[in-house]
Amino acid sequence: QEEKIFAGKVLRLHVCTMEGAEWLEEVPEDTTVEKLKERCLKHCLPGSLEDPKTVTHHKLIHATSEKVLTDTKTVLEENIQDRDVLLLVKKRAPTLLPKMSDVVAEEKRKQEQKAPDKDAILKATANLPARSVDRSVSHHNMRDFQTELRKILVSLIEVAQKLLALNPDAVELFKKANAMLDEDEEDRVDEIALRQLTEMGFPESRAVKALRLNHMSVTQAMEWLIEHADDPSVDAPLPGSAPAEAPAEGAASSAEAAAGPSSEEGGEEAKDELTEIFKKIRRKREFRPDPRAVIALMEMGFDEKEVVDALRVNNNQQNAACEWLLGDRKPSPEDLDKGIDTNSPLFQAILENPVVQLGLTNPKTLLAFEDMLENPLNSTQWMNDPETGPVMLQISRIFQTLNRT
């Protein structure tokens, strides 16, 4: 009874841990903080007191004052009041400073993995022979090749037209050429790509138009069809896709005129008329700019006409067309219609080649030249053709041979 009478005041304390556990501890005010920690650890970590270091590895913090309580002091000495909140926290081990040897080793490893700078690269490669080609020069040479090839085709077209006009079978040759032109227009669509689009539900005629506008790319054609689904002119025929009946009739009458007169004057008129007819064929091969490239370049502020000119000069290549628009704009669109110097060694070597000579008498070769002139992206098709491929291969070889000398 005396102990109860003289015992200290009992405090009810709210204890929390970092893991979220909460409970009430009732302790006399003369209890030391160390004893209070032991009671708290028994409650939240049973069996932890078997390790004597467990108590020293934890600390109690007064939540209101944020003060760390001293183990040797009592609850009264720490001025803890009834219903105060205490936080039980495990002490963190102090961060060990790295050893100097480890620091040196890590710094050395970073230096070894560091990429060399420009000066180090130049120093290491100073004695190596230069083998790389300047990209700007390579690009310039490629532009020269494309320009010269166009000039060669323009001049060869003129030669082929004259040869076909002088042929006694000019009428039949022209009819054959016109028939091949129409057949080529019909057969140019990739059947597999067309089937993929029609299986998606697109009308066949519309899918054919989309494929021709997008260089037989199924993905781009599908995007074009979706974008123009509500366009009233989506089913309008492409330029040059009209029936060739009228030209054929004109061809027949012109061919009759060519076959009728026997005098030189009549022959000249027939040749002129046949040349005009071949110009009509060429109009069927009008250059078709890539619609996506046109939109992209016009969004940069260029006029539509100059955008089309740029794409025509640069074979529908958007990046090259942009450089042409921003640069000196050479060659000009007018330069594309100029032929090569007929007295030049290059042109003479081409004309003297037997394969080229034989190919120029074939109407299909003329059609190939016309098509490549206006649509360079179709060059692969003609290079793989058994009739026109050998002619193109010989022209390419002669050009490359004379270009090296």
TrEMBL record:
InterPro entries: STI1_HS-bd, UBA, UBA-like_sf, UBA1_UBAC1, UBA2_UBAC1, UBAC1, Ubiquitin-like_domsf, UBL_UBAC1. Residues 232-271 are annotated as: Disordered. It comes from the Eukaryota. Gene3D superfamilies: 1.10.260.100, DNA helicase RuvA subunit, C-terminal domain (1.10.8.10), Phosphatidylinositol 3-kinase Catalytic Subunit, Chain A, domain 1 (3.10.20.90). It is found in: Cytoplasm. GO terms for cellular component: cytoplasm; ubiquitin ligase complex. Pathway: Protein modification; protein ubiquitination. Residues 236-264 have a biased composition (Low complexity). Keywords: Cytoplasm, Repeat, Ubl conjugation pathway. GO terms for biological process: protein ubiquitination. Pfam families: UBA_7 (PF22562), UBL_UBAC1 (PF23326). Residues 182-228, 288-328 form the UBA domain. Its main location: cytoplasm. This is Ubiquitin-associated domain-containing protein 1. It comes from Motacilla alba.
